[in-house]
Amino acid sequence: MTTTSRSLAIAAKGLRKAFGDKTVLDGIDLAVPAGTVFSLLGPNGAGKTTAVKILSTLITADAGDLHVGGHDLATGSQAVRAAIGVTGQFSAVDGLITGEENMLLMADLHHLSKQEGRQVTAELLERFDLTEAAKKPASTYSGGMKRRLDLAMTLVGSPRIIFLDEPTTGLDPRSRHNMWGIIRELVSGGVTVFLTTQILEEADELADRIAVLNDGRIAAEGTADELKRLIPGGHVRLRFSDPSAYRSAAVALREATLPHARLRSRGGTSIDEALSLQIPCDGSQRELRSILDWLDSAGVEADELSVHTPDLDDVFFALTSATDRPQADQPEETVR
């Protein structure tokens, strides 16, 4: 990365952590520019939460040159705590008191005056659409409301760096999208977000950069598009409703020569139960044009043509341990 250290909200070099004889983080490097979303992906037990706990001063690293908000973690932990907010996997909301009381308690912890605490509480409750429920016990809140209250409590101290450890786990799609909107709003205001998530769509939607953690090391890092280009498997899929049209196309494809599409005359296509053919393609305009020109010249008319490129699921499965992968579907029959 060309980003200078002065513009980094979070910088880690050689971060190491072991518990007994189990090495969880094996000398990883992280660089998070200010005002961006950085997402750390990885299977369960990969060390994502451990990284968050170390960078948020909850536990200490075994080794590493670590800076958060411009402060050295080893010598300036108090300054780091003043600059950050943390929302963990499990809500910190106290269900026995009201949402407003949860907020006021957090204001007291930040040593705000009573007047300032009430003002900040009212502003944040309104911002997170919790004003109507403010006087109700937090135990009566829905999952989405509790997560919004949790994040609102995190913002009481106006942190410029926020660690979100799987913030939307267990939320329904609507609540999840609402939370994404809140995160985007925070970042647009200059806040830096360090996000861990098991929801790959979440990282794809929000993150400026993504790192994939596996076996204690960074397996790959980049933008979502850069990571997707690491993984082969893009293809054009042709679907047919007429079996005879499908058979004619399959025969034509066996004899085809499509140099730009890297289609081989044998083994270059596969079929599934829905009468479809797959042609390897990296999704580039040149390869797609070559395929379309060939289809026209061969008189192949499919009912549907779609372009498929690898997604973050493909990246995740390719870069993380095989034991964490779901069992693969039965392979499609190959046209010979």
Order of helices and strands: EEEHEEHEHHHEHEHEEHEHEEHEHE
User: What's the rounded overall pLDDT mean?
Assistant: 84
Strand order of the largest sheet: 6-7-8-3-9-10
Q: Which range does the strand content fall in?
A: 15-25%
Topology-level CATH name of the largest domain = Rossmann fold
> End-to-end span in angstroms?
46 Å
Based on CA atoms alone, the radius of gyration comes out at 25 Å
Weakly predicted, low-confidence segments: 1-5, 259-273, 323-336
Report the CATH superfamily of the largest domain.
P-loop containing nucleotide triphosphate hydrolases
SS elements, strand count: 15
Oligomer: single chain
Shape-level CATH architecture of the largest domain? 3-Layer(aba) Sandwich
Instruction: Indicate the overall shape.
Output: elongated
